[in-house]
Amino acid sequence: MPFAVARLPFVLLSLRAMVVNDQNKFQAIISHAKEYGFVFQSSEIYDGLSAVYDYGPWGSELKKNIREAWWNAMTRMHDNIVGIDAAIFMHPTTWKASGHVDNFSDPMIDNKDSKKRYRVDHLIEGFADALNKEGKTTEAEKLIADMDALLAANDYGGLKQLIDDNKMKCSVSGTCNWTDVRQFNLMFSTQLGSVAEDASEIYLRPETAQGIFVNFLNVQKTARMKIPFGIAQVGKAFRNEIVARQFIFRMREFEQMEMQFFIRPGTQQEWYAYWKAERMKWHESMGIPAESYRFHDHVKLAHYADAAVDIEYSFPFGWKEVEGIHSRTDFDLKSHQQYSGKKLQYFDTEINQNYVPYVIETSIGLDRMFLLTMCHAYQEEKWTKEDGTEDSRVVLKIPAKIAPIKLAILPLLKKEGLPDIAKEIMATCRTEFYCFYEEKDTIGKRYRRMDALGTPFCITIDHQTKEDQTVTIRYRDTMTQERIPVEGLVQFIKSKL
Length: 497
Ligand code: GAP
Prior knowledge:
The protein is of the alpha+beta class. The protein has three domains: 4-21 and 377-496, Anticodon-binding domain (Rossmann fold); 39-92 and 188-375, BirA Bifunctional Protein, domain 2 (2-Layer Sandwich), CATH 3.30.930; 105-185, Herpes Virus-1, CATH 3.30.40. The chain contains 16 helices and 25 strands. It has a seven-stranded mixed β-sheet. It has a six-stranded mixed β-sheet with strand order 1-25-24-23-21-22, with helices on both faces. The two termini are 21 Å apart. Residues 207, 209, 239, 241, 250-251, 254, 256, 258, 321-324, 361, 363-365, 367-368 line the site of glycyl-adenosine-5'-phosphate.
């Protein structure tokens, strides 16, 4: 039965995005994420824990949907990729073999008089705070920008110079007598074992990749995989980050979605190009246009890589890395082979050769992809109604397939049997996709709330529903409405996901 798109009670004469500057937009996104139950500061009642965040009801749902979209794209859609779920704790030698014990570090400085050790960023940020309190905000901002640039360039001499030039003092000795800047490891460690004397120090994994490498043979043999093949994993990683600002962009506890693709040595260039293209296609499939992304080749390569590129997104605070694609050579498997004394090789029946496979890695931060989705979806819109008055809304235009709530079911009134019909519809739809039932407030307020949560479809049950078994469906992005039959509603929504 065809139903025409209804004219809205207010006609959108000119729907336009409100002009907000990027920094304001970013602050607005952070506030929105908290106000609408997406992301909270961890342990907020105790004033929070720096760079650690909790996901609320709608944030955890959105995060789960992104995770699933990645997992399905990797495993279900590729015959030659399987998944694993390795433990966070690993044998400490893993991190010696991977190079993290020796190479995964950030700069620190000691005061020679008090012997107090500072993280370089803490010392400089403390000094910048003091400048801010004196009203010298421009100097403070410049100092932080200079520090970020020097940290990014690993310029430790420059950082020391910055500390000396600004005559930064130790809070204990009050002197400016500093050592050179030295490295500080980013891995968190803890004790394994119940009695202190017997306990041994282990690390919280700083990346999920090593859980894949140490399981290479287990997976290859049990899942009967033939090269080329991949192992995918999603899980928590922990880094004692030195520059941990910008909300969930850089966290100390975060989730990674990584895939190691094992290949024949010598084919790495071809597979590197393949995964660059494949990953970009995935990003576009998540509803983000290609022009919001760019590739950024690494000039300085990590100790394990012979080529590396970042997929960067244009965040409100600039172009930043979301995902890394790394040609990791045979570094990891060879190193684990050497440290463990166990062979990690593959017999390639096609060429009758035994070798340690090469690896192409794709590694994306789930929290970063979440932030990217929020930044892209968040819009403040304003328009003039037919009667000349202004109206506005905040809407999250999250792609329907990953939206936390797919369908809001709203009886127009709390009486006259409308809630009963709505609850019946709810019972049918909730087994198929995430639905939300709401009968409080005016219908206009309920629509606005659903816009703010990113719900792509709302249906309203009214008196006409009783007569012809139709409901009004309202589309989040255009705010247009049409009547559709209740019968076939599930299929109708599914076809839009
Ligand atoms: N196994 C390779 C690896 O871990 P990486 O470039 O250090 O490479 C990969 O990290 C991805 O993990 C990054 O592109 C980013 O999306 C995410 N990531 C890294 N550190 C993060 C942090 N502190 N907070 C949130 N996401 C982070």
